[in-house]
Write a structure and sequence with these properties.
Number of strands: 8
Radius of gyration: 24 Å
CATH superfamily of the largest domain: Aldolase class I
CATH topology of the largest domain: TIM Barrel
CATH class of the largest domain: Alpha Beta
Order of helices and strands: EHEHEHEHHEHEHEHHEHHHH
Structural class: alpha/beta
Bound molecules: phosphoenolpyruvate, manganese (II) ion
Strand order of the largest sheet: 1-2-3-4-5-6-7-8
């Protein structure tokens, strides 16, 4: 993939190499009191960037859809009286104009909007000539190119202070998370665009308070750059996403518990031990690929046999049996069910493709 983005550093708070870059604030601005109370407590806890949603994209109508532009002056007070930076979500051109008029410091594009190239294009065009940092949440579907497309559209409109927000992905299968983190997607984004900061959004990944720390720590261990965490002065009474919001005090505790490890390895002993271990991993990976190759050989033989005997490729009962057996085996070996299902789905799909190829050969 050929990606050329002109990027400027996203860190604008005046603190060089600030890590993690923390953005916190309520899911939604609800009232002037709630905004000011939450922001004041966050500022006292050392947070410099305040987030609050004004226009809320909700799954069903009649849920609380945000206070809209009525909340902009509240955010302006946060900026002026508390000396914090303010960030809000924009989903259309009107939101952009209203936010710019009120002096918002940072804008973000929500997950549902990122999934719509027309909407992103319009927002990008409305930002031409404006030097404002923009964060783009991953699209709800795990499509790294669609995510990159949004950065390209914004960049073509002259926006150079860009950051990605990793908020997890919708899944058909139920998982532990509200939105499955699928770390491989932001990792791929980082591989393709190393200079683009990645900010993880543990709140929307988890959907509940209990897993927030674990996901935040994982983001730091992936060497991602920041965290955006929904924080409310009275989380249980929040009008949206109540289960996942935490108090400013809990946020401060979470941030203090984080262990920040270094990405560069500066000691030779460390490096050689690590290299040895990596070498071991490489050996296992070699074996994994060889085993897959051997397995596909057998799959092709089965394909041929089925073709000669006029049998369909997929026999659901056989697939159920494989999965059940491997899940039991994995549990005994300390491997998660989620992992083993993913691996065997991929292997099974590849097997079917190989069998199909044989079937379709003259
Ligand atoms: C939000 O940050 O409040 C929000 C609506 O998030 P997302 O676009 O990730 O659902
Ligand atoms: Mn929310």
């Amino acid at each position: 993939m050929n990606i050329t983005l002109q990027l400027k550093p996203f860190t604008f708070t005046g603190v060089p190499d600030e890590r993690p870059l923390v953005l916190a604030g309520p899911c939604s601005a609800e009232s002037e009191e709630q905004v000011m109370d939450t922001a004041r407590q966050l500022r006292d806890a050392g947070v410099r960037i305040f987030r609050a949603g004004l226009w809320k994209p909700r799954t069903r109508p009649n849920a609380f859809e945000g206070v809209g532009k009525e909340g902009l002056p509240w955010l302006k007070r946060v900026k002026e009286e508390l000396n914090m930076y303010t960030a809000t979500e924009v989903a259309n051109v009107k939101h952009v104009y209203d936010s710019l008029k009120m002096g918002m410091d940072i804008l973000w594009i929500g997950a549902r909007t990122t999934a719509n190239p027309f909407a992103v294009q319009e927002i990008a065009e409305s930002l031409k000539g404006v030097d404002i940092p923009v964060m783009v949440k991953n699209p709800i579907n795990p499509d790294v190119e669609l995510w990159i497309g949004a950065f390209e559209r914004l960049n073509s409109a002259g926006i150079t202070k860009l950051a990605a927000i990793h908020r997890g992905f919708s899944t058909y299968h139920k998982t532990l998370y509200r939105n499955n983190p699928q770390w491989e997607i932001p990792i791929e984004l980082k591989r393709l665009i190393p200079d683009l900061p990645i900010i993880t959004d543990p709140s929307h990944i988890c959907g509940s308070r209990d897993l927030l720390f674990e996901i935040s720590q994982m983001a730091m261990d992936m060497d991602f750059d920041g965290l955006i965490i929904e924080t409310h002065c009275n989380p249980d009474k929040a009008l949206s996403d109540a289960q996942q919001q935490i108090t400013p005090d809990a946020l401060q505790k979470l941030l203090r518990r984080l262990v920040l490890r270094k990405a560069d390895i500066d000691s030779n002993v460390l490096l050689s031990t690590l290299e040895e271990l990596r070498h071991e991993i490489d050996k296992y990976d070699d074996r994994l690929v060889e085993i897959c190759e051997m397995r596909m050989d057998v799959a092709r033989k089965i394909g041929l046999y089925k073709k000669q005997n006029n049998i369909t490729i997929l026999q659901t009962s056989r697939w159920d049996e494989i999965l059940k057996h491997r899940i039991e085996q994995a549990a005994m070996k300390g491997l998660s069910e989620e992992f083993i299902i993913k691996v065997f789905r991929a292997i099974h799909e590849e097997s079917i493709n190989h069998q199909m190829k044989v079937m379709n050969e003259e």
